[in-house]
Amino acid sequence: MTSIPAFRYHPDPIATGSAVADGGACELCGEVTGARYAGPILGRQAERLCLGCIADGTAAERLGRPDGSAEFSDGLRRQSDSLPSAVLEEILRRTPGYFSWQESYWLTHCGDGAAYLGRTGWDQIKDDDEALKALRDEAQELGMDTAAAQEWISRLSPDGDMTAYLFECLHCGVHLAYSDAN
Ligand SMILES: [Zn+2]
Ligand SMILES: [Zn+2]
């Protein structure tokens, strides 16, 4: 049986692809948990790392380099203004990250980090007004007009070269998203 710890900010890492089924033993703790981490490690690499070792901070500590703990998300340090430091530490060091092409973000709402739900695309969110609004706002900030934004959003897909990452606020439930391209 696969045992997946509860991650506040990444509730289903198997569904998002940040963990995969694996029958081997974790390199750090030796446990056979049925799954291994499959996301980015900013630190020393481990071929087979269980999610329990991420959840309890063992992986951050033991895969760290002399200059600091290992982290599992890139680029988030720039977001430190929008996240309480305890939340930032939990997301960076005790939460499975996810691969992205450009620097990743962890979207925030109601003063907290949001829950990462995975990659998404037009077919999945065409009726999701909240996610669409977030993507339209992002496109506008990038200088796209309404038609260009719609064209861009309609080409997003979960497994293509243009994708979006979907989040949900843990407090008010609003859907949030941002896009990425290879
Ligand atoms: Zn382990
Ligand atoms: Zn909220």
From TrEMBL:
Pfam assignment, any one? UPF0167
Q: Which InterPro entries match?
A: UPF0167
Of which family is this protein a member? Belongs to the UPF0167 family.
What is this protein's record name? Uncharacterized protein CbrC (UPF0167 family)
- Lineage of this protein's species? Bacteria, Bacillati, Actinomycetota, Actinomycetes, Propionibacteriales
